[in-house]
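Please go through the sequence line and token line underneath and see whether the fold suits the sequence. See right below:
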Amino acid sequence: MTIIPIRFKRGMKDNLPVSADAGEPLFTEDTHEMFIGTGDGIVPVSDPALKKRVEVLEQSRSTVAQYYTRTSRPVRGWMKIKRLQRLVLGS
């Protein structure tokens, strides 16, 4: 069996197409919204929780990147990653 990855069309919301093939997923990189094509249009996938989690992940990613460019202490960095992981995953 061949496994084929699901591909999303991505881009800025201003460049979102008016229509997409039925079932085709679209993702806006600036507003972190998802849409699904209907064949003759697109419909938003409304999930405020998903949008919030993506925003938190983006903030965490930039925080970790900034942290590691400023320090060379891997142990302290690991602890910061664990704190971010608890924040994102809620555990």
In short: The first helix runs from residue 48 to 70. Residues 9-45 form one domain.
